[in-house]
Amino acid sequence: MTHRQWQLLGPEDIALRSFEPVGPKPGELLLRVRAALVCGTDLKVFLNGGHARMLQPPCPFGHELAGTVIAVGATQSSDRRSQSWAVGDEVVIGNSAPCYRCRECARGRENLCADLEYLNGAFADTVLVPERFVRHNCHRRPASLSPKLAALAEPLACALHCRELLLPTLERLSSMDHNVEHDVEVVVFGAGPLGLLLVGLLARDGLSVTSADPNERRLAASRAFGATQTELVVERERVVPPLLEHRGGERFDLAIDATGRASGRSATLEAVRAGGTAVYFSGTLHSPRIALDADRIHYDEISLLGVYHHRPPLMAQALEELDDHQLPFSHLVNETVPLEDLPRALRLMRDRQALKVALDIDGEQVAESSEA
Ligand SMILES: [Zn+2]
Ligand SMILES: [Zn+2]
Q1: pLDDT of 178 higher than 80
Q2: Do 283 and 121 meet the contact criterion of CB atoms below 8 Å apart?
Q3: Which CATH number fits domain 4-151+328-371: 3.90.180.10, 3.10.105.10, 3.30.110.10, 1.10.3720.10?
Q4: Which residues have beta carbons under 5 A from ligand 1 (an ion)?
Q5: Fold of domain 157-306
Q6: What distance in Å separates the CA atoms of residue 281 and residue 125, rounded to the nearest whole number?
Q7: 286 compared with 62, residue with greater pLDDT
């Protein structure tokens, strides 16, 4: 069996290397990757040559995957928390594992764990899953869910995390409307995969959702996910004035930045009405600094909410959501390529020709065996 994995070596520098997995040791699993998805974060990491939290090169690359257990390390039977896994089990692995010992973990904020470990190496035909991930963030793939769709659990968990952090705000907004019926209005800047998932979840909650993006095809996808309004962004640095003009000057209760750009962060603050909440959902590719109108935050009582990553229980919830098929999740993955075509997959995403690209490692396996 081949063991190949893509490694990130530096900015726009990747290589497909052979490797021999060492293990699985006790508590670990060895997986055959069946499908891996390229995420906007991977593109950002590729262009930047690293990520402040998740990985520094040289290192294995890719973090959204579904796979089959092909070897199980000797289990420690004294530990009742760990599920038992067997060869042939179909699983989805979350790409982080909290310590469950620190203050943040104790407060249910595992994504902020002081010792959060990340798992990279999804762009491979084999991946070794460390013990902490097996224990805390390994999930059975529902039988009716394809590996490709199941690998969407990671980005969906990020969107579910955002929704979870927004729940107190949403409850407050709806309880304030005592006499008059006002829709809670939200604008999501950026209609990439995560922007679309946010549109879908919030629209399903009954919010009136506007989606803003420079790409007409992505706005069409937003409508499929339940956006009631769309705004074609003509000029990234001047998004909000035309958007508000189309609404008679009315701002939004909530504005969410899912663009990965400084201009999106500025727009998010600018678009929110007095008493509203601006959400910084995505990390930026370039400078994280923006000019901030602190007076507006003070006088208009704007709340600023940062949202990062996800927690293991949300990976489980995401798999249930995907298995429910209530949102058009399959719209998010519009290209499938074999493992060695990762460079093309990254180009397709950089050029906005695909929302997400799947690496179909399973299909490749079939092709290999039919050649033999
Ligand atoms: Zn991701
Ligand atoms: Zn912790």
Answers
A1: no
A2: no
A3: 3.90.180.10
A4: 39, 41, 64, 154-155
A5: Rossmann fold (3.40.50)
A6: 31
A7: 62
Residue 260 DSSP one-character state: S
pTM of the model: 0.94
- Is pLDDT at 360 greater than 50 in this prediction? yes
Q: Tell me, in angstroms, the distance from the centre of ligand 1 to residue 37's CA.
A: 8
> Residue 138 to residues 29, 67, 82, 117, 277: CA-CA distances in angstroms?
10, 11, 10, 14, 34
Boundaries of CATH 3.90.180.10 in the chain?
4-151+328-371
For 367, the token pair is 């092709």
CA 182 / ligand 1 centre spacing (Å): 34
* Segment holding 134, helix H or strand E: helix 131-136
Task: Dump pLDDT digits (tens) for 256-282.
Answer: 999 989 999 999 999 999 999 999 999
C-alpha 278 – ligand 2 centre gap (Å): 27
User: How far, in Å, from the CA of 32 to the mean position of ligand 2?
Assistant: 29
